[in-house]
Amino acid sequence: MAELIDGREIARQINAAVKENILKIRSSAGRPPRLVSLIAGGGEDAEIYVNMQKRTAGLVGVEFSTRTLGADISQDGLAEEIEKLNSDRDVTAIIVQKPLPEGIDHATAVSRIMPEKDAEGLHPHNLGRLLRRDADIVPCTPGAVMKMLRVRGIDLYGKEVVIIGHSAIVGKPLSLMMLNEMATTTVCHIATAKKGKLQAHAKGADVLVVAVGKPEMVRGDWIAEGAVVIDVGINRVGDRIVGDVKFSEAAEKASLITPVPGGVGPVTVSILMRNVLRAYRNQNVGV
Ligand code: NAP
């Protein structure tokens, strides 16, 4: 039976370190770090994420506010709002909350944030730094996965890492981070599934990361004995939240596994706060 990787405990440790570091900088910086979440359209999912961000921000000493825009906002209108926050000296970091209204492109919006204020590490400048292996502000969910593996002492050198899902916010940046650790990295996606090769790839993984958004898609017989399984998925099924991995089956095969909820989710929010800390530190050098 697999051991759990407890995301809530890891998040607590990160939050404590972030809080301590913010306090140190604050004594010379004067003003506190401030994170602004831009919400357009909203919806229940956006509200859940924003509440989690707000709660964690409060724990670590980050001031948090939201700026809610109408669902009829245009791409240019959103860019103008971002511009205002870019030039506000009291704003340390900015998130453009997903989901956005139909027709508004998240990546385009994020590219208008100053890289120094890019809370989610998704600005092209910060993504480019991943390629150079000198990333400072990192994409939050991939950063969370890497942190969880590090905390559990998983040496990725030469390991077979299989990532299912190649989104711009999870799979793609994570694949670069894995390569940076010298893991032999395979990225699977919908074409892999259509060719019927998903299960064979998954079965070859020492470390399997799943980020597809399909409830319990990965079954126990996809997993090699002793593999590490990281389930990024968060799916609502009736009144339950489940991952992309069928937990009860996978736990029979894996050596280590993340639960959902209580796995990657809370660590992702803590990495977001660590990014705010880094932005705050960078904006207060020599103060
Ligand atoms: P996304 O943008 O929808 O991307 C899903 C990816 O999975 C795409 O690359 C897609 O490939 C691939 N995919 C879909 N169906 C597949 C299948 N049957 N076989 C293989 N690949 C398939 O989603 P995301 O934003 O990356 O999020 C993925 C999941 O993680 C969601 O459940 C989301 O809620 C969760 N999530 C959790 C956190 C956290 O903090 N824990 C953070 C972000 C996201 P194509 O593009 O080629 O179709």
Write a concise keyword list for the protein shown above.
287 residues; alpha/beta; Rossmann fold; 2 domains; six-stranded parallel β-sheet; globular; binds NADP nicotinamide-adenine-dinucleotide phosphate
What would you say about this model in short?
This protein has helices at residues 7-29, 44-60, 75-86, 106-110, 124-131, 140-151, 171-180, 190-194, 198-203, 247-253, 264-283; strands spanning 3-4, 34-40, 63-69, 93-96, 160-164, 184-188, 207-210, 228-231, 235-237, 240-242, 256-257. The chain is an alpha/beta fold and 287 residues long. The radius of gyration is 19 Å and the shape is globular.
Structural summary, described in words:
This protein has helices at residues 7-29, 44-60, 75-86, 106-110, 124-131, 140-151, 171-180, 190-194, 198-203, 247-253, 264-283; strands spanning 3-4, 34-40, 63-69, 93-96, 160-164, 184-188, 207-210, 228-231, 235-237, 240-242, 256-257. It folds into 2 domains: 30-116, Rossmann fold; 140-264, 3-Layer(aba) Sandwich (Rossmann fold). The protein has 287 residues and is an alpha/beta fold. Helix 2 links the parallel strand 2 and strand 3 (63-69). It has 11 helices and 11 strands. The strands form 3 sheets. The protein has a 6-stranded parallel sheet, sandwiched between helices. A 3-stranded parallel sheet has the order 3-2-4, with helices on both faces. A two-stranded antiparallel ribbon has the order 9-10. Helix 6 crosses helix 7 (171-180). Bound molecules: NADP nicotinamide-adenine-dinucleotide phosphate. NADP nicotinamide-adenine-dinucleotide phosphate binds next to helix 8 and helix 11.
